[in-house]
Automatic annotation (TrEMBL):
This is ATP-binding cassette domain-containing protein. Belongs to the ABC transporter superfamily. Gene3D superfamilies: P-loop containing nucleotide triphosphate hydrolases. One of its GO terms (molecular function) is ATP binding.
Amino acid sequence: MIEVKNLTKYYGKKMALDRVSFSVKDGEVLGLLGLNGAGKSTTMNILTGYIGATEGTVTVNGYDIMLEPMKAKSTIGYLPEQPPLYLDMKVREYLEFVCSLKKVRNKDVHIEEICRQVGITAVSNRLIKNLSKGYKQRVGLAQALAGNPKVLILDEPTAGLDPSQIIEIRTLIKELGKERTIIVSSHILPEIKEMCSRVVVLHQGKLIADDTPENLSRTITSPHQVTAWIKGSSEAVIQAVSAMAVPCHVKLLAEKETDVYEYELTGPEDQDIREAVFRTFAKADLPILSMKGNDFTLEEIFLKLIHQSPEKGGGKDAGNIRPGN
């Protein structure tokens, strides 16, 4: 559905993208992940035909975005980080305007359908400027859906939303992904993991990883350090840890419930301590109510990926990032 080959973009002498290549299959939800300034928005602007590339090609649904822009753009729905809304219009009035621009037939029926899809039917007669941030974002999604495009490109769709609104938009995007090819950009890893079946990671304009969220998480998790909720006295926990086959440091974090404490357990960096922790506390009759590997922060994830990439910053041949690369 989308094919990106050797995409390069300069702004004056500054290189924003460096030979980025990836593809997105029909019906796939791809996450475009990167820190601010990594090149995500530049990539999306080129994919939508808003700006041109210095070098490289983008093909959408078989159409080259530069050679056949109208045909390519007719298959794309785009939501920029700042939704392109006319605040003094009513929601329905605005969607009628968008549908007119896109030459949509049966506008009334189509608008009713997209309002239902994104959950804005109840506010369709209200002025956009009087809507909450979450509803404005939904109206932005509605305009992207006008014309029933096969491809959706969403730039930071949850930016500025509160936690409940973020969950609503995530759920909506996953639902929309059942019928469309979607690219979602974000600098927040958990959001990408929740919504996407595959992740492309950009750093300083270079592609440094292209993999599933599961494989990426497996690469960047820290199994030598876990957080566990353990039932029993802290003295008994400390005694059990001192008898572990694997040397391990234990740190009490908080009391979660009566006689249930949260601990951080850290072993040698080259060892996965989870099985040893489980066996140790089972033998000591200290129930583990919860245990998870400690996730890296986004900054730590990028440091690890950058360290693993062939050029310490990625490159066109960085490909899938695997442990030991």
